[in-house]
Amino acid sequence: MDDGTNRLGWMLDDALRMPETRYAILLSADGLLMAHSERIGRDEAERQAAGMSGLQSLARSTAEFCGDAGTTWRQTVSEFDDGYVFLVAAGPGAYLAVSATQHVDMETVSFRLQELVQRLGKELTSPPRPGADTRA
């Protein structure tokens, strides 16, 4: 999806206008970097994308612990001494990860990420092929 120009990076930068946020990356389910915010270099973003792919896979495999193995995974929040990592589903086969300090307003970040997911979903959806019949 990212052809090397990081065409969706501006959307991630926009999400980081919240106080106490650090970095944002958009990744595919198989861990490939799709876009990254300006504050994180491409090499580091690629490394983090691979890790986040594993994290979402582990989280999804624990759905049964929540009551039903078929339940839909939506978000994982990991807490560290220096802050948080929010990982959310961003569309079919895409995930959004945001890093923040320990002083971030977690509720605000979660809400803003859901807004961003809605915007990204429109960008990640393939447009209809030219000449295709769009009538139902």
Task: Give a structural overview.
It is built from three helices and five strands. It has helices at 9-15, 42-61, 106-124, and strands at 21-28, 33-36, 75-80, 83-89, 94-101. It has one domain (8-65, 72-125): Dynein light chain 2a, cytoplasmic (Beta-Lactamase). A five-stranded antiparallel β-sheet has the order 2-1-5-4-3, with helices on both faces. The model is unreliable at 131-136 (pLDDT under 50). The protein is α+β, with helices and mostly antiparallel strands and 136 residues long. It is globular, with a radius of gyration of 16 Å. The longest helix has 20 residues, at 42-61. Residues 9-100 form the Roadblock/LAMTOR2 domain. It comes from Actinomadura montaniterrae. InterPro entries: Mycobact_SerProt_Inhib_Rv3364c, Roadblock/LAMTOR2_dom.
Question: What is the fold's blueprint, element by element?
Answer:
Elements: H1 9-15, E1 21-28, E2 33-36, H2 42-61, E3 75-80, E4 83-89, E5 94-101, H3 106-124
- How many beta-strand segments? 5
Strand sequence of the main sheet, in spatial order? 2-1-5-4-3
Indicate the overall shape. globular
What integer value in Å does the Rg equal?
A: 16 Å
Write down the domain tally: 1
Task: Tally the helices.
Answer: 3
Helix fraction? 25-40%
Just name the CATH architecture: 2-Layer Sandwich
The ordered string of helix (H) and strand (E) elements is HEEHEEEH
Instruction: Provide the structure class.
Output: alpha+beta
Mean pLDDT: 85
**CATH fold description:** Beta-Lactamase
The major β-sheet equals: 5 strands, antiparallel
Q: Quote the distance from N terminus to C terminus.
A: 28 Å
Report the sheet-strand fraction.
15-25%
Main CATH class: Alpha Beta
Name the CATH superfamily classification: Dynein light chain 2a, cytoplasmic
